[in-house]
Design goal:
Blueprint lengths: L1 E2 L1 E4 L3 H13 L5 E4 L12 H4 L24 E3 L9 H4 L1 H17 L13 H12 L2 E4 L3 E3 L2 H17 L3 E3 L3 E8 L2 E9 L2 E7 L2 E3 L6 H11 L3 E3 L2 E10 H10 L4 E5 L6 E8 L3 E8 L2 E7 L8 E10 L8 H16 L3 E5 H6 L5 H4 L11 E3 L8 H17 L9 E8 L3 E3 L12 E3 L10 H16 L3
Parallel strand pairs: 1-10, 2-3, 2-11, 3-7, 11-23, 19-20
Antiparallel strand pairs: 4-6, 5-14, 8-9, 9-10, 12-22, 13-18, 13-21, 14-15, 15-18, 16-17, 19-21
Helix pairs in contact: 1-13, 4-13
The structure holds flavin-adenine dinucleotide.
């Protein structure tokens, strides 16, 4: 059977694209292909066993609704956060489409009002300190759904798509694109050792960070134009809530950008989870990455957030993905497939952390998926220097941040190494092939992935 649109990847970009398609033209035959399972069948064994058992396809990362399904769902309502597709489309288009995405959230029961719109005196004080210490505070209105809230919302959205006859084929891995005379014709997909072919003249490639490497291979192999993009490497830190109280209570999340004095490299905070939990995620064999969650109903007494260094490489080096993977492999070699944890106190002293030394701290880790050790054995010096400088700068805004009790979980990596060449309709140089979301190299958040999925579909709709 030939479809009108195929979404390769049923994450945020895929399901919002599929929604836009069937909502605007109910006659369209829409197919979503995903490597993971349907949302309802995405069950992480950790929930019952209490620890990560390294499933071949991680249910947290892969599956319908994508990384967003289990994410804390802080939805940023401005083009400035979540990606930079506005460099292709213009700011107005992105902000208008974000409003359209929000109206879909509202339709499925997400009624929370955004925070961060009006400054009180505490927020003004935080902003003043940022200005004083050379940190840019990116303040955009944000809605917060929470991990369990987002799961409910995506369940309703996927059920709606099924009602509207969107076809989902899951546990299928995209292996090849089918391209004839510069036009997309479909994709080849592996399923239980067999190859299957699916056909359409419009294909939206949205395989997220988890599929970014595959997307780079596909581009390389099929002549889809792309450039090497940046890679984000850093740590996820955990600190008692009381240290973060002013930021948590007033901003929920304060996005900070800092250019280090030593190297002039860009550091940023990302995905802060007040009263949250650390998660170890398996992205591939020996690629175990730190992440964080916050739940509406389940709370810890720690805040976690990531401190990321954005690294762009210059010619002739063209393997940023492999570089970041090698760092993750090294860390995994030291820990036997867990996160590497060190307290900031031990890092500053140049000493490894041990379980015994961690017990002397005021903070209790919210995960057991770690080995206490020495981050400097796996993290390149330049990146580690940047992280430490940023921690000290953050301490000026949040006194107590650079304390011995700050826990550093290594590595946290955001793979965005391919930046596909797209036009304002998200179309690549291959006719009918569109790119959306994190794997396009233009997205890093829920908002921009959904926007790109919708914009691609709006162009496809003009053909029908
Ligand atoms: C723990 C966590 C917390 C986050 N918190 C936030 C937040 O609060 N706010 C925010 O804005 N963003 C957050 N993000 C980022 C956000 O989830 C992503 O930016 C967003 O999901 C990107 O959407 P996407 O459609 O591009 O990719 P994804 O949602 O990752 O979806 C990609 C899909 O492609 C599938 N796939 C991958 N490879 C293949 C293949 N070879 N074949 C077939 N299918 C494949 C995957 O199974 C997946 O379903 C978080 C991410 C994580 C992991």
């Amino acid at each position: 059977m030939k479809y009108d649109i195929i979404f390769l990847g049923g994450g945020q970009a895929g399901i919002f694209g599929a929604y836009e398609a069937v909502e605007k033209n109910s006659q369209l035959k829409v197919l979503v292909i995903d490597k993971g399972r349907m949302l309802k069948n995405r069950v992480c064994p950790k929930e019952t066993l209490g620890k990560c058992v390294n499933c071949p396809t991680c249910a947290i990362i892969y599956g319908v609704s994508g990384a967003g399904a289990f994410s804390d769902s802080k939805f940023n309502m401005d083009y400035k956060v979540g990606g930079d597709v506005h460099t292709v489309t213009g700011k107005e288009v992105v902000n208008q489409t974000i409003k359209d995405v929000v109206s879909v959230y509202r339709k499925f029961g997400f009624n929370e009002e955004p925070s961060g719109l009006k400054y009180n005196t505490k927020m003004e004080e935080i902003k003043r300190r940022c200005i004083e210490h050379g940190i840019q505070l990116v303040d955009t209105p944000t809605m917060h759904l929470g991990t369990d809230g987002s799961r409910k919302l995506y369940t309703m959205l996927v059920d709606y798509l099924l009602e509207k006859n969107v076809t989902f084929v899951t546990e299928r891995e995209v292996e090849e694109l089918i391209i004839e005379d510069g036009k997309i014709k479909g994709a080849k997909v592996s399923y239980k050792g067999q190859m299957e072919e699916y056909y359409a003249d419009n294909v939206v490639l949205g395989m997220g960070r988890s599929g970014a490497h595959k997307v780079m291979d596909l581009c390389h192999k099929h002549g889809v134009n792309y450039q090497n993009g940046a890679i984000d490497i850093g740590v996820r830190v955990e600190i008692p809530d009381i240290i973060m109280k002013d930021i948590n209570e007033n901003f929920y999340e304060a996005k900070m950008i800092y250019y280090t004095k030593t190297y002039n490299d860009k550091m940023r905070t990302f995905c802060s989870n007040p009263s949250g939990f650390i998660a170890a995620e398996k992205h591939a064999e020996d690629v175990i990455l730190a992440n964080g969650h916050a739940y509406k109903d389940k709370k810890s007494t720690n805040t976690n957030l990531s401190l990321l260094c954005t690294k762009t490489f210059t010619k002739p080096f063209d393997k940023p993905f492999e570089y970041a993977t090698a760092i993750a492999n090294l860390s995994s070699m030291l820990t036997g497939g867990k996160l590497l944890l060190q307290s900031y106190g031990d890092l500053k002293l140049g000493k490894r952390s041990t379980d015994e030394k961690l017990e002397r701290l005021n903070i209790v880790p919210t995960t057991t998926d770690y080995v206490a050790g020495d981050i400097s054995l796996a993290c390149p010096k330049r990146i580690l220097d940047n992280i430490m400088e940023f921690i000290e700068a953050h301490d000026k805004i949040t006194p107590g941040f650079a304390s011995a009790d700050l826990l550093l979980y290594f590595p946290e990596i955001k793979f965005r190494s391919t930046r596909m060449e797209i036009d304002k309709n998200m179309m690549t140089n291959i006719e009918g092939l569109y790119a959306a979301g994190d794997s396009s190299g233009y997205g890093s958040g829920l908002n921009i992935a959904a926007v790109m999925g919708m914009l691609a579909v709006r162009h496809i709709l003009t053909k029908y």
